[in-house]
Structure formats: structure tokens, C-alpha cells
Design brief:
124 residues, alpha+beta, 4-stranded mixed beta sheet, 4 strands, globular
Length: 124
């Protein structure tokens, strides 16, 4: 798939997206966009529905961004392949397991140098 910048106005939220994006998450995503820009592409169906990246699109709009780097899947939003991609993106990362010792060391380094805002973690 080819990555193309697409205007935010051309995205439609997928009606079957099971993920909700609370304010705390959106604030972290906004901070990440300010600090690092886009580092993960949005994925959408060929009829304009977002499959991956709903939260990033909300954060981008809040930050005044006009476009998003996007890969377009050559199927409609209700095609089984599109639904599977959306389910995969929303679920598979939750199956990973953290090495708590390594995570604590990583977060300590980040906190000392850059601070934790935009990471999804807090001082607590």
C-alpha cells in the first residue's frame, strides 16, 4: 500500500469501531503529535472510513493539522478484510506482555530527559 497525505475532512469514523478515546488518551496523543509528528500511518477503507487511527485523527484535528499520512485498503468499510484489520489493530497489541523491570528503567530514563507527558504514563 502507498502512503498518501489525505485531508482530515475526508475521513469518516467507522460505525463499528469498538474503541473509545477518553480525554486523557487524547491529551497524550496531542502531546505526541506536537513533539514527534506522525510516526504511524492511519489506515482507511477505500470508501473513506477509518480502520486504524481514530484517536490520532481526533488529536490531529485538535492540533490544527490538515492532513494525515494514510494507507488505503482496497475494500469497503464493511468488507470482512476491513473489519478484520480494525479488530487486529484494536486488539493484538493488548496481547503483548511488559517486562516490568525493563519498562521501569525505560520510563525512568524518559522521565529524566524528556518527561512522561505524551507517553501514556504519569509520575504515579
Amino acid at each position: 500500500m502507498k502512503v498518501v497525505d489525505i485531508p482530515l475532512s475526508e475521513f469518516k469514523p467507522h460505525p463499528q469501531n469498538p474503541r473509545q478515546h477518553p480525554e486523557s488518551e487524547l491529551q497524550h496523543l496531542q502531546k505526541s503529535l506536537r513533539d514527534h509528528g506522525w510516526f504511524k500511518n492511519v489506515v482507511r477503507s477505500n470508501d473513506g472510513y477509518t480502520l486504524c487511527g481514530h484517536g490520532m485523527l481526533i488529536a490531529a484535528e485538535r492540533e490544527g493539522k490538515k492532513t494525515a499520512p494514510t494507507e488505503t485498503v482496497p475494500v469497503a468499510h464493511d468488507h470482512p478484510k476491513a473489519l478484520k484489520i480494525m479488530a487486529l489493530d484494536n486488539t493484538v497489541s493488548r496481547l503483548a506482555e511488559d517486562d516490568d523491570t525493563q519498562l521501569a528503567a525505560l520510563l525512568a530514563d524518559v522521565q529524566r530527559t524528556e518527561g512522561l507527558d505524551g507517553t501514556g504514563y504519569s509520575d504515579a
